[in-house]
Structure formats: structure tokens, C-alpha cells
Description:
By secondary structure, chain A is α/β, with parallel strands linked by helices.
Amino acid sequence: MLKVEHLSVGYDDLQVVWDVSFEVPAGALVAIIGSNGAGKTTTLRAVMNLLPLMGGAITFKDEPIVGTPTHQIVERGLVMIPESRATFASLSVADNLHLGAYTKWARAEKKSAMEGVYEIFPRLAERRTQLAGTLSGGERQMLAIGKALMARPEMLVLDEPSLGLAPMIVEDTFDEIRRIRERGVSVLMVEQHVEMTLELVDYAYVLELGQIVTEGSSRDLMTDSRVREAYLSF
Amino acid sequence: MSRWVSTMVWLLVLVAFAALGSITDDERLMTLAIQTFIFAALASSWNVLGGFAGQVSLGHAAFFGLGALITRELWLGEMALPLAIVIALAVTAAVAAAVGLPMLRFRGIYFSVGTLALGVAVWITAGNVWPGISSLPADALREYEFTGPYYVALGVVAVVVAVSMWLKRSKLGLGMMAVREDEEAASATGVSALAYKMIAFVISAVLAALAGAAFAFFSVSYYPQFPFSVVWTFEAITIVFVGGVGTIVGPLVGSVFFVVGRDMLSSTFPEIQVLTFGVLFIVVVLLLPGGFVEAGQRLFKLVSRGGADQKAKTGIRPGEREGKEKT
Amino acid sequence: MTQLVLQSAVSGLLVGGMYGLVALGLALAFGVLKVLNVAHGELVMLGGYAAFLIFTERGIDPLLSMPLVFVVLAFIGVVLYQLLFRFVVRFDIEKRIKNSLLISFGLVLILQAIAVLLFTGDDRSIVTGYSSAAWVVGMVRIPWVRLSGLVVAVIAAVALEWLLTRTTFGHAVRGTAEDWSLASLAGVDVRRVYMIAFAISAGLAGLAGSMVSLGYSVNPTIGLGWTLKALVVIVLAGLGSMRGIVLAGMLLGLIEGLASVWVGGPYRGVVALVVFLVVLSFRPQGLFGRGGAYV
């Protein structure tokens, strides 16, 4: 579904990501794991064309998307939930969801999509006229996911979905991600919580200081000694 | 260029202009020269606050007008010119200190709009309190010579440039530029942003008043409200940006360009002049933020390296794309 | 004396409506694009000339020609956006504001010069059959041509609010105003939103200009004065409510009107600026601003 080859990204003259390649096959649940500052967010933002590339090729559904305006990438079915600040604080819950279905093909199904989101997250239904800025962290995350679902994505990209959430909420969130994949949406997530992530995903890449140092199926990585030493607690 | 060489060059330029004042009799040339000096001084004074310290004041004319007003009133009232100027500067410094403190608490755009509001308020008030035209008395008119105003204006711009140069190289100037680049970062390293901004504000105001004094001494007759007009601020800012904001030479080059350009276009409608400079200003802000100075530097690099392998790094550049999210 | 005070108050409220109308457009541009267009007053001026020309050439009453003036100015807005402001929105917010301030500053000079070349520096005013008509309520005289400005302001505010809160486009605009990169991640074409918002902003300036040439007068230099008033109104109102802006405009007009009774006419202009500085110092978020709102 999504193929990234030899991606290099930087800010002005500071290069942050070097020659990164990864792939998300259709229907798969893939993760890029790494600690803070590894370049995970930068990579994702470059994929969505929020940052200019220094080099590399990106294809989505076999079509190149380097240089394609962000909103058009979204129109093609690739939706990203950014790390924190993923909802419009000055808009109500309902308006956030409305805006989530801004793309043409999502608009057609807006009503049913919204009902679907309220079913999955009844708390959002209760608070539908509330400003998103007044929601709790967990509710905001729910709204962010709901908003992303409204866009009827073919592939969902999540930047650190567990960030700032209580462990129980993280579990709920990860369950929801699993269910999203079961509905046929391909998922790429970027995470620091290595253990929980490896238990969730099929395949993962490890990013360190802007470079992919290793990759493999989650089972292989969990048994990889380097990964265990660096990231896992046992 | 070593310090000594550049100082020598500046002194040479100064001497050349001083000589010019004695040699020539051409009234038009002298008028243009004096206007250039006054604009150069005014623009350089704005540059101290806007270029070094990065605070865009839109009410600058208030101090220019104040300097002109006090100098004119005292001098026409039989006081010696040097004393009148000193008093004008002292009063301006006091006013600037009083006004600067509340104003500088505002940041960025609020500061700019606040100073604009203040400048216009002062202009309105000046027009109400001093509505009558200020003219030189008859005998002074008959004896009017350009030499005096010429040397006063030359002296003024020399002082302003000297102060600017000293400031730019001093620790004070460094602090101002730190505040300009990133006020929060500067504060975090113990730089009192407010203090540096205040100093820049007061120095800038006093230098503007000095330019105003030269204007008062040079002008035969004008409405006292005139030097308070926001147009002077506009023109000073245009000159600074077109010449090269933040540099010493920029305002000077810009003022020569402005006065000469205006003179050349004066045969056409005055509106064409304004139009031209307006367009030029926009072009500079968008494409060449460093003005003529940057253009000159790039040209020099291009010629001396025979190629464009080196990207000229200037302070502020239009970004290429949406990027650099500020956290 | 009471008559004077009442009349001054009412006249102030009426002109305040105009302040609000001018401020609406400026607030929209600033709230959505984070661009400060100090040449907004010049757009008002051009709108006034447009209405004047339509009236003198075609005899169409300014109240009827308003939609046309809106379209003309909106078109000018699109042109200005594509030529100038499109490049400014590439920067981050801080630089955007600073650069747009400078650029629109140059635009002030340019538009004024063009106006003088096209229309000369004379004052122009639209005089219609009802130009001297007024409602008399007790001791107070309410001229129709000035009341119309207030009415247009209220209608425009309501229409804008409806657009922003009840339409999909309005959601996109508000989202863009808060966080443009998040909006583009939602599939919003941010550039297009910017362009349309700016065009609407210019169109609103045109409407204000129509009313200015009907109830007051137009000449090439009026721009900056209206821009300053609009800025004061925006600071007074805060962002987040179009209605609030019109109310703040009326409040400013009222304060000016009452102050002029005691301080005298020539210092009217100073009043606004004092209000501005006081509000900025003590309540920078404005009187009617919805905390956290962006447009």
C-alpha cells in the first residue's frame, strides 16, 4: 500500500532522517519504533508532505506522492493522526467529526460514519456539542481516532497514539487500532512503547537517530537480543 | 576589511562631503544633499530599533517631529542652535523613556500597531496645538544660505552613523540582536529583553530627534504638524528595507537612492514616485529582504567565485515550503 | 445639553456600526490567514469609489449595487492574494504577521497612488434622493444614509457567523484558522481557503466602502484612518465573535461621540487610540472574545 524508499529529510541544513526505507503492505499493521528524537515524527510528516524531502521516493497505492499537496494525499485515502494536537480545540466534537469527513468520498457517507463513531465512542456522543479543547486527554484521543475514521481512510498513520495517555486508555486505544485493521484499513504506527506495540503489530522497523537499524516481524524482534537490551525491560 | 581601513574610508567619505559643501554653489544639489542627509539620519535611527533590535515601530515620526518642534521653537525664539538641539534631545530622551516602558511590554504586532496609534495621536495633537505655519522671519529669509544647514545636516548624519557603528559592535548591540533573533531564547540566557529594547528605543528616538533638528534648521517654512506625519515613518522604513535592514550602509544607500529617485521622477506625477517606491518596497520584502546591501553581496560573491555554488546566507529568508513547525 | 449628548451618542453608535463593518473584513483576514493587512482601509476606499462610479455612470443606488461592489472587491482580493499574500503565508505565524504588515504597508502607498491617478484627490460622495432624509426620534436625528451602514454591518455579521458555524466551508475555515497543518491533514485545501477568506475580507471592505461613500465621503487618503479604527475595534472585541466585533465598533463610536462633547471635535481621533492602548494593557483578549477562538 505504502512504500517509502531511501527517504532523507531535514530542516534547513540539519538532516534528521537518513536513507530510510519501509513498506506497509495492504491490510497490514506495521510499526516504526524508536525512542525520542529518533526522527519518527519527521518521517511521517515528510510522507504527508508537511515537510520537504531531501531525497527519496514515496508511493501510495503504486502512485508517487512526493510533492503532492497534503490535502490531495488525504483525498487518495492516506490519513494521518498527528502526535498530540490532533483535534481542533476551538471546534465542538461534532464539528471536529464533520471536518474529519471533509474529503469528497467521505462526505457522502458522513451521516452513517458519524453514527458509527458515536457507537464506538459513546462518550463522544454525550459530549457532541462540547468544545474539543475541554475534553480530557483520553477523550481527545478518541475524538482524534473518530475524526480519522470519518475520513474513511484506506490507510491510517498514527504518530505516537499512546503519548500522554494513562495505561488503561492506551490499551483501549490499541484495541481500537486492532479493530480498525480488522475492518480492512492498513495501519502504520510510530511508537515509543515498544513492548505493547510489538504485541499489537505484524511487522516493525526500528529507527535510531534517523536510520533504520533493524526490521522484522514482531515475533522476531521480540526475541532479537539487541532490541531486548535497548528497548524491552527484560 | 580591517577596522582601520574601513574607518579611514568612512572618514574620507565624510571629508569629501564636507568639501563638497564648500565647493559647490548649486542650490538644487545642496538641497538634494541635505535631504539625503536628513533621510539617512532618520532611516538609520529607525534601523537601530527596527534593524538591530527587531522591533518594528510605526510611530517613529513622533520623535522626528518632536525634535524638529523643540529645536524650531527654541531657535526661532533667539536661542543658539546647539543649545536648542541639546534641549530637544534631552526632552526626547525623557519622553521616549516614559513612552517606551509601557509600549515595549507589547510584543510584535501589538507593538507595531500600538506605536502606529501613538504616532497618529501625536500627529493629530500637534496639528491642533500648533496649527499655524512656522516660517523664518523676513530677514533670516533674505539671508538664507544653504551652507549652514548643509554642515548641520552632515554633522547630524555623521553622528548618527557613528553611533550606529559603535552600537553594532558593542555588547549592547549584540544583546539587541539576540533579542531580535529570538526574544524568548535571549531571555532564557539571562538577557533582559526589556532593557535592551528600551535602550534601543531611546537611542532610536534621540537620533530621530537629531534628524528632526536638522530638518527644523534647514526648512524655510512648514506646518509644525508636518514632521509628525506618518509619511515620514513610511519613507524611513522603505529606505531602510530597500537599502538593507540591519546594516549600517543600507539606510545610507537607500536614502541616496530614494532622494535621487524621487528627484528623477519628479517630472512625472508625484503618485508615480509613490507607486514606484511602494512596488520596490514590496519586491524587497518578498524577494530580497536584505535590500541593496544583500544584492551587492550576492553580486560580489557571484563575480568573485565565478559561480553560484555558494548560497548567500542572510538572516531572514522567505521559506521554500510549509515547514519548520515551531514547537 | 441633553440633546447634544444624546445626538452625539446616537451619531457615535451609527458611525460605530461602520467601524464594525470595516473591522469584520480585517478580522476575517487576520483570524484565518494570520495576515495583518494594513491596506484594508485602502480596499474600503476602492469600494467607495466603485460604488460612486456605479452610481454616477449607471445611476444604480449604492444600496442596490452592494452585491456588485462586493464581487468587484472580492476579485481584487483574489488578485492581491495571488500576487502578494500567497507568498507571505509560507512563513511561520510570527514572520507572517511581520511580513504582511510590511507588505501591506507598501500596498497602502501603491493603492493610494493609483487612486489619486484614477480619481484625483477630490472628495467624493454619493448624493441620492434620500441623502438628507432622517428619522427623528424625540430630540435625536437619525440620518438614513448612516443608519444603513449600521444595518449592513449587522446583516454582514450575522451572515458571516452563519457561514462560519453552519456550513462545511465554515468548519474548514475555522479549522484552518486554528491549525492549518491539521486542517490540511483533514483534506482541506488550505491555500484555497486562504484565498477565499481573503476575497471575502476584501468584499466586506467593499461593502463598507459603499456605505462610506453614501453616508460620508471618499478620497484617496481615507484608508489609514479606517484601518486604524478597525484595528482598535478588533483589539476591543477580541477574536471569536463577528457579532462582538460589530458591538465593539458601536461601543467605540459611542465612546468617541460622548468624548467629543467634552473634549472637542479635533481630539476625537485621539480617543480611539487611547481606548486601544488601555484595552491592550488591561484586557488584551478583548471584551467579547471567546477565549481560545481564532476567528
